[in-house]
Amino acid sequence: MTMSRVKIPFSGGCACGAIRYECSAEPVMMLKCHCRNCQQMTGSGFSPAVLVPAEAFRVMRGQLRYHFTPSAAGGQHKRGFCAGCCSLLTGGENTERPTGVVGVTAGSLDDPSWFQPQMDIFMSDAQPWDQMDPAIPKFEQYPPSAPE
Q1: N or C: more exposed end of the chain, with fewer CB within 10 A?
Q2: Helices (H) and strands (E) in the chain, counts
Q3: Confidence band (pLDDT; 50, 70, 90) for 1?
């Protein structure tokens, strides 16, 4: 997938600056997850995520702390955050079913303006006040053949 506005490598970090990351590959997918767990982790109606190849994601400064939450696919999701400012930076990595991708929160990107969601997932948990783009595909839970 070629993202016309994505300059590789792209980078981001937490609100306090203690953690900086870089990704040396184009995103595999971009989506908005509306699952109840993402709502609780972000304090919002969804989590905007840029899925990138795990081998292309590198923390350049600082160290992520991790919190584990149950996954609808079984196992647990590994969510990375800054211990100092509590910014959520990564998520979606399944501890029991590795997919080879890391979900990076779009809001943590240095330039989040290029984020373009390709789908909404976990519509089963979406809030009625969450206005969505009707032009992108919607899935009750995980989409067919997508990283879980």
Answers
A1: N
A2: 1, 10
A3: very low
**Residue 38, SS3?**
helix
**pLDDT at site 75:** 84
Question: Who's near 31: CB < 8 A, 6+ residues apart?
Answer: 48, 49, 51, 117, 118, 119, 120, 121
pTM above 0.85, yes or no: yes
Which residue, chain included where needed, has tokens 């919190």? 67
Mean pLDDT taken over the chain = 91
**143 secondary structure, DSSP code:** P
The domain ranges of the chain are 10-107+116-125
